[in-house]
Amino acid sequence: MVFRKFPGVSASGMGLRLSQKFVFLLFLSGLVTLCLGALFFLPDSARLKRIFLSKTEAQPVTVGSENDAREQARKADAAAARVRALSRKLNLKAHFCLLQMMKFAWDNYKHYAWGKNELRPLTRNGHIGTMFGGLRGASIIDSLDTLYIMDLLEEYEEAKDWVENNLDLNSNGESSLFEVNIRYVGGLLSAYYLTGNEVFKKKVLELGEKLLPAFNTPTGIPRGVINLGSGTSWSWGWASAGSSILAEFGTLHLEFVHLSELSNNPVFREKVMNIRKLLNKIEKPHGLYPNFLSPVTGNWVQHHVSLGGLGDSFYEYLIKSYLMSDKTDEEAKKMYYSALEAIEANLVQQSPGGLTYLAEWRGGILDHKMGHLACFAGGMLGIGAEDGAPEKKQRYLDLAGEITHTCHESYTPTKLGPEAFRFDAGAEATATRLSERYYILRPEVIESYMYMWRLTHDPKYREWGWEAVEALEKHCRVEGGYSGIRDVYASAVSHDNMQQSFFLSETLKYLYLLFSDDDLLPLQDWVFNTEAHPLPIIHRNCLQRQNSLQKPDKTPIDGKSVAI
Ligand code: DMJ
Q1: What pLDDT, in 10s, does the model give residues 253-299?
Q2: Rounded distance, CA 30 to CA 42, Å?
Q3: Which of 84, 153, 199, 529 could form a disulfide with 186 if both were Cys (CB 3.0 to 4.6 A apart)?
């Protein structure tokens, strides 16, 4: 090797200096390589990689984002499908549970209380009570349509046979016109319309006739109590000044219209149209309907207004009369929406915590309390929203959702709700009195979940319904059936020993429908009476429909005459 000579440096000295430099440079480059290499292994190295990579190398990252986006969309779809599958599973599970629950309630009633009105599940015997006079089998009549809808056909046959062979309408005793109407007349009508079995029609027309004497008053407003054997009727002892109750005489319309339809006898319709005529005519304080009316003078007896007990189903039957008439009963429509205006102006309130509720009104003074019974109003407002004035439709649907939300809020901590809850002295949808803490298997909150589900398909309503199923199983199921509980706030529940007939007719049916497809008893074709018995909408426009199939010159499309 020839080294160039540099001035002042010997060859051997230069060689030594060169090798020192070489070692130093080698060391330096090793250090730099190590440092750069280490950078790539730092946890946040991705950012540095981006800086060090050229644009062309960076390109695949953009392609990767599109892929990522596609991948994310695919994952989201898969997740949605999983949720749908899960909710189908939950529906199947819910259906399965509800069938088991209905069967359990029915089997226990059959075993321990057959033919009596209700089951006492703790003492495992039957209860007759005083509401139905001499009538028996309230749980059987209330269960007929639920059993049929749930496809529990063996059990339905047992119920039908009992009606055929054992339902005795020639009974004496003090019976409530309202309760007999909503449970027996409603239950038999539904059973007839669903199954077409003539035995139900025969029985219900016979029973309808027996209720007519209750209307023999100076005004035609019926009294609350009737002896089905003798036809004598009188007012409830507890109702002030011999008055009749708004929710009682105002909850006959749907059933009586169908009695006239089935019998071709206008008398039933005339009786309820007469009630409506009087209510329409009479002066109403602030547009509101008080709960007590004299059947003698036709005047209000007290100024207590409520969408809870004593008032509730009167409002429900106004909108349902309109819907059941295939939206032809304009008078019912007008009365419903005017009543709603008055309710909005006078009863709808907002709590400090932001909950919307329906207060009670006592001669202008508000009682900031809502009964469990008033929770049906979520569903009622919901089904009535569509036919409200254009500018009110959304408001009514929102109000329906808000009331249902408030009622759900009252369902805590057992996930079952008290008989009444308050919004005063710091209370937010909680029962403040010991005497209002009980839950007797009532349906109203679940009823509103069912309607709101059908109207909005918001999954929260099914979630809330499922909470109720779990709570019923946990707190109300006992060895001998289902029982109400005395205190929804108590950690150790105490049972009231009563399986109400409306648990079978309403609570379990509404839960079952909540988890069913909308075409099981579609709201376009059926209305539910206040005991959840489905009654068909009376379609009057079939002639128009037939005509619409004809050519303009009225010649039938197929050239043949249309049989009507
Ligand atoms: C049912 O008999 C009916 O829903 C009625 O309109 C009110 N009370 C019970 C259920 O809570």
Answers
A1: 999 999 999 999 999 999 999 999 999 999 999 999 999 999 999 99
A2: 19
A3: 529
Burial class (CB in 10 A: 0-12, 13-18, 19+), 429: buried
The more confidently predicted of residues 545 and 75 is 75
**Is 518 annotated as catalytic?**
no
Number of other CB atoms surrounding residue 95 within 10 Å: 15
16 CB burial (10 A radius; 0-12, 13-18, 19+): exposed
Q: For ligand 1, what atom is nearest to the CA of residue 312?
A: 6
In which residue are the tokens 């308050």 written?
Answer: 422
Residues whose CB falls within 8 Å of the CB of residue 555, separated by 6 or more in sequence, listed in order? none
Beta-bridge mates of residue 421: 370
Q: Tens of pLDDT along 518-563?
A: 999 999 999 999 999 999 999 976 654 443 333 333 333 222 222 2
Integer Cα distance of 50 and 195 in angstroms: 74
- Is the full-model pTM beyond 0.70? yes
241 CB contacts (<8 Å, ≥6 apart)?
A: 292, 294, 301
String of DSSP letters for 413-448: SSS---SEEE-STT-SSB--SGGG--B-S--HHHHH
Q: What is the pLDDT of residue 14?
A: 37
Q: Give me the sign of the Cα torsion angle 468, 469, 474, 479.
A: positive
CA-to-CA separations, 520 to 103, 380, 390, in angstroms, rounded: 20, 19, 29
Q: Is 530 annotated as a binding residue?
A: yes
Ligand 1 site-directed mutation target among 444, 445, 499, 504, most atoms within 8 Å of CB:
444
Q: Is 209 a catalytic residue?
A: no
If one residue of 248, 314, 373 were mutated to test the ligand 1 pocket, choosing by the most ligand atoms within 8 A of its CB, it would be 373
CB of 432 within 8 A of CB of 423?
no
Compute and round to an integer the Cα radius of gyration of the chain. Answer: 35
Residues near ligand 1 (Cβ within 6 A):
313, 373, 442-443, 502, 506, 530-531
Residue 118: beta bridge partners? 127
